[in-house]
Design brief:
This protein is of the alpha/beta class. It contains six helices and seven strands; from the N terminus they run E-H-E-H-E-H-E-H-H-E-H-E-E. Helix 3 runs parallel beside helix 5. It is globular. 34% of the residues are buried.
């Protein structure tokens, strides 16, 4: 296999995760960039739309971009190297699709774990390098709202499961990378 194998890149917001992840695949001839979250709505959230646009402009022109919440399907169909940015937006899309934000916590967790159980074998079977970006959200304050606590806890579950499926985990802090 050419490239870095399976790598999970984690860290805080604006830590340099995406830039580092992109650098790991800079020499790959064929890269599928999977953006597995809700598509940006410039009218409802212009800041988020601008951030997504910044990421799009930064990527090399030959990278193929797939946007949308079906990470498992997109990864199964992807050829060559894959960059997933990011698991936090995927988790949000999963909970949104199930309309599960107000369900009991254990029910939400079961729904997310079912989607994760479909994703992990596809990740393991992908023949090329895969770099996945995620947020490390458990190092800060306790979120004031239930949805924030559910997101934090579930992203921790997702991150641990994906990390077990990866060859390496990179922690990015202030633009510096620590290989765990």
């Amino acid at each position: 296999m050419d490239g870095p194998g399976k790598v999970l890149v984690t860290g805080g917001v604006r830590s340099g995760k995406s830039t580092h992840a992109e650098s790991l695949l800079a020499d790959a001839e064929l890269v599928a960039y999977l953006a597995p979250g809700p598509l940006p709505d410039a009218e409802r959230d212009p800041d988020w739309a601008a951030r997504v646009d910044q990421h799009r402009r930064r990527r090399p022109a030959h990278w193929h971009t797939v946007e949308g919440p079906d990470l498992t399907g997109a990864l199964a169909a992807a050829e060559g190297a894959v960059l997933v940015d990011c698991l936090g937006t995927w988790l949000t899309a999963v909970v949104d699709q199930h309309r599960a934000w107000d369900l009991p916590t254990d029910d939400v967790r079961r729904l997310v774990e079912a989607d994760l159980d479909r994703l992990l074998p596809v990740l393991a079977d992908h023949p090329g390098p895969v770099v996945l970006v995620t947020n490390e959200v458990g190092m800060g304050v306790v979120p004031a709202h239930r949805s924030g606590r559910i997101f934090r806890d579930l992203l921790g579950v997702v991150n641990q499961a994906v990390a077990r499926s990866c060859d390496e985990v990179h922690l990015v802090v202030a633009g510096r990378v620590l290989r765990l």
